[in-house]
Amino acid sequence: MASVSFDSVTKKFGDFTAVSDLGIGIGDGEFVCLLGPSGCGKTTTLRMIAGLETPTSGRVRIGDRDVTFMHPKDRKISMVFQDYALYPHMNLADNIAYPLKVRGESKEKRHARAREVADVLKIGQLLERMPSQISGGQQQRTSLARALVYPSDVYLFDEPLSNLDAKLRLEARGFLNHLQRDMGMTAVYVTHDQAEAMALATRVAVMDAGVVVQYAPPLEVYRRPATTFVANFVGNPPMNLLPVEAMIADGALHLRADGLATSPLKVTRAAAKALEGGKSLTLGVRPEHLSIASGGEENTIAGQLFANENMGPEALVTLEREDAARFTARIFTDEMVALEGRVRLGFAADHIHLFDGEGLRLPLDGEEG
Amino acid sequence: MTRYLSLYFTRIGFSVATAVLGAVFALPLIWFVFAPFNPRAELGLAVPDPFSLANFETVFQNAFALRGLWNSLIQSVGGVVLVGAGATLASYALSRSPIRGKNVVTYILLLFSSVVSGSAAMVPIFLIVNGMGLIDTHIAVILVFAGGLLPTAMFILRDFIDGIPKSYEESAMVAGASPVQAFFDVALPVIRPGVVVVVVWAFVNIWGSFLIPFILLRSSEKMPASVAIYSFYSEAGTPIVTLLAAYSLLYSLPVIVLYLFVSWKFGFRFFGGIKA
Ligand SMILES: Nc1ncnc2c1ncn2[C@@H]1O[C@H](COP(=O)(O)OP(=O)(O)O)[C@@H](O)[C@H]1O
Ligand SMILES: [Mg+2]
């Protein structure tokens, strides 16, 4: 196992910058998820660790080796590809054992080792089959087995679960989590599924248009998203965001928008500074922090009922405001929520998030260091 | 009711018309199958009576005719090896490497290749081969064919390789394989169906061609079957149909056998359209 670090790495394809000035470090034994929408540069970043792509500028290190221009075969890495890349002309045993074959292991030894790994992954009885003769879930485990069959410094995963159906994906996710706990491997895992990132990562690097916008443990990303982009990407459903007008009066911060009533907030230094430039801020509240308001109007938001979806243990209640913006509440109840017409959703003052005109997080009371 | 009836007659009419058309095209083939076994074969169609192998006996006694088949084999196999190996390596490189302008190179080559093996270039080709002192050698025929067929072969194969995900070789290299190992262990087996198509295509092309060996070769011991056929005339200049028929059948066999072998072994996924 080893650490990985990027030293102001930029990757361009022609004029297009796919990854821009990347500078993250991945500790020994860490499981880092690169999370972001399609096309934001996650795969490109992963491929630069693998050596399948060469940075336009900057350095990549694995442990204390500068691998920027090193051939993939010399990097001591394993990689699971999104399309699995199983060799169609080899049976599973030969597929799994291929990395040992190129290392010059005898046929007997490598097949014994392949069987060992295959048994762990519950594909031991399929070793004689060809890749085309097994299911998608089994193909996925075969490609995982091929990555685990030899010891590597770093394990790379490029959306390994995205081709599985929902149930298999949950199962495989649990297995990967277990594996990480078991092996303590250094892993970089690319995904566009925020739930996968939250479940697996020790740290999440949220990427947007080639830039890492936040690099922090999953709970930190969830609790204190650095930008509106992160707030909107992490969470299911994503955070509700609402443009508000802000002003400082009587030594307190007041937020104003149609149908919104918030209690005055403490003026932090960052908030005061943000308001010098203008008075538009963005208010954010997570769906799970909203409930049907019962008491007074303070800390509530109102609108017409738009949708009411019961899903068993919880219900999603969505209201639509006059400006067409929607607010969704995730209410934990197995009762039918009876609602009609104008609805008021309430929240606690310490569960709100504020972002400035650029979408950057404004630290609230208690967050400022 | 009348509508169904008219539909019915349209169907019958259509079937009869296509059957007649089919028969017209089938006639030469039927001749081709019957005539070799007919010791009195003429250009007209006739069922062999008696059915005999006498024509083949005559062919097998003709050293020149057998020599022609052997020469065809030498030239075709030689050309196929060059075209197959050259096209595989070149198209793989063209497909996978990030060289700029590689598309332009492919298209220019393709454009010129139709000139090289076409009759327009026969005089310059003859002069070049003559200048190299290779006139009347197998190697001259093989080289000219390789030059003429390679660009098209590269074009076909490159298209095929472009359609194969790079992740096969990439996963091999990440797993510790050198580029050469990744090519032979993983890429080559995966692109083999494409190579087979190109090899068959090149073989059929060389085996059946007349002009190039006719121009580049002098001595009768080096002539391939396609040229040798031309010598089956009587002194008076009329074709010896019996000999010609038997020889034609023998001449076609390798190609037929090759097709059958390949389709049995690999399946013609790229010729047949859909194969489950
Ligand atoms: N070989 C390439 N040539 C040109 N553009 C590329 C290449 N690889 C990736 N890109 C572009 O770089 C951007 C990032 O790609 P990628 O890293 O694959 O995104 P992600 O994995 O986050 O979906 C995309 O816009 C993609 O089109
Ligand atoms: Mg990707």
Number of strands of chain A: 23
Strand residue percentage of chain A: 25-35%
Secondary-structure-based class of chain A equals alpha+beta
Gyration radius over CA of chain A: 24 Å
CATH class division of the largest domain in chain A = Alpha Beta
- Percent in helix of chain B: over 70%
Low-confidence stretches of chain A: none
What do these coordinates show?
The complex is a heterodimer of chains A (369) and B (276). With 369 residues, chain A is of the alpha+beta class. Chain A folds into two domains: 4-232, Rossmann fold, CATH 3.40.50.300; 238-362, Nucleic acid-binding proteins (OB fold (Dihydrolipoamide Acetyltransferase, E2P)), CATH 2.40.50.140. Helices cover 25% and strands 33% of the residues of chain A. In chain A, the strands form four sheets. A six-stranded mixed sheet of chain A has the order 7-8-9-4-10-11, sandwiched between helices. In chain A, strands 15-13-12-16-22-23 form a six-stranded antiparallel sheet. In chain A, strands 14, 17, 18, 19, 20 and 21 form a six-stranded antiparallel sheet that branches. In chain A, α2 (92-102) crosses α3 and α2 packs parallel to α4. Chain A is globular, with a radius of gyration of 24 Å. Chain B is an all-alpha fold and 276 residues long. Chain B has two domains: 2-52, no CATH class; 59-265, Orthogonal Bundle (MetI-like fold). Chain B contains eleven helices and no strands. The two termini of chain B are 41 Å apart. Mean pLDDT of chain B is 86; it is low at 270-276. Classes of the chains: A alpha+beta (369), B mainly alpha (276). At the A-B interface, β7 and α2 of A face α7 and α8 of B. Adenosine-5'-diphosphate (ADP) is lined by residues 13, 16, 18, 36, 38-44 of chain A.
